[in-house]
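Section 3.1: Structural characterization of target chains.
Under the original work plan, the team committed to producing a structural model for every single-chain target entering the pipeline before any wet-lab resources were allocated. The record below documents one such target. The sequence was received from the expression subgroup and is listed exactly as submitted; it comprises 362 residues.
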Amino acid sequence: MLRIIPSGGEDAAVVDAIVADEHEYMRVSFFGKHAEFVLDEVGIGDVLNIENAYLPRGTFVRGLRRLKVAHGSRITIEKGAEIRALRSWNPVHMTVLAIARPEKGKVCVAGVDRDGNWLRPQSIYLNEIENHKFRNLCVSRIYVDAWRGRRPRKEDRFLIHSEGTVRELDEHESFEFLEKIADKSVKSAFESGRTLGLIKAKRILRIHEKRLTSSKNDRDRDRNGNKDRDKNKIKDKIKIKIKNKIKNKTPGKTDEKTDEAGEKSHEIYIHMTFQDTSGSIYRKWPCRCAEFYKIWNEMREKHRWTYRWRMLRMLRKNIVYLAIGLTYTDYGTENLQFGAYPMIVGVHMLPSHVARSLKHAR
């Protein structure tokens, strides 16, 4: 078994997993006692023997047929069995350039492979970020397939499995890598048909935050907070185990609120106005970079009255690269920049002395 992932439904006590042999993979749904068994006894990398599973006609999840393990099925762990999953697949080495804040348990991750192609692996969850499967400016070894979901973008891929971080770039490697793949401008990045790109900011002109109104938080909690109130005991038990195994448990003060259903709504949203190297100015782009919010919150706690000014000064003192992205481009709304809603998905700050030392070495 390669991954345990949350199921898409709220009404079934089910655990979904990606199970693979040496040649192929499949999404498998475990119901009832089998779901409990997977959560309690099965670990990533275990070899499973599944008997009497069935493949319902017309059952698909993200375009993939889903195997069901329910009443009448039997699963056991094969002790001592050695199967190298996906041996026939070619892994991708992706340098991660964007890890966004979680939205409803999912995390948007993007990066560049060895050939310079942008990738956006889909269906990544909080536990995979916590377990360091993906880290900014680090190389992750992943297995991906074509994305069969709705509204696919050019860079979208389905994440089958991540073996984790295999190498971390130091400051000099990071600078050379970012310089190499950076687009000439925001316009040149998106005019090529991509929905992801990297630009070097000539200057950060303004940065400000917006707070989500309490009334919207209240509406969200009223709408989502009591969905599982009337579920039976086994469903509640399994859902608690899923939350404990998959849900983000990062301690400390954050700018997030968690409702009873486990979904998160952010209180603070940061927006940037910046100038790219072509001289064009782009105003009030929302920032979703998780690491940048962490720095922002730490600065706010340390310097209560001057943190905005200090953050802007920090951005202007360092070399700043912005990973940029477009949301889906078929909203049917006119007068949108590049036909979609652009945003900043990764912020990379490097000290100016790194560039000077490299120039001196050359």
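Residues 233-246 form the longest helix (14 residues).
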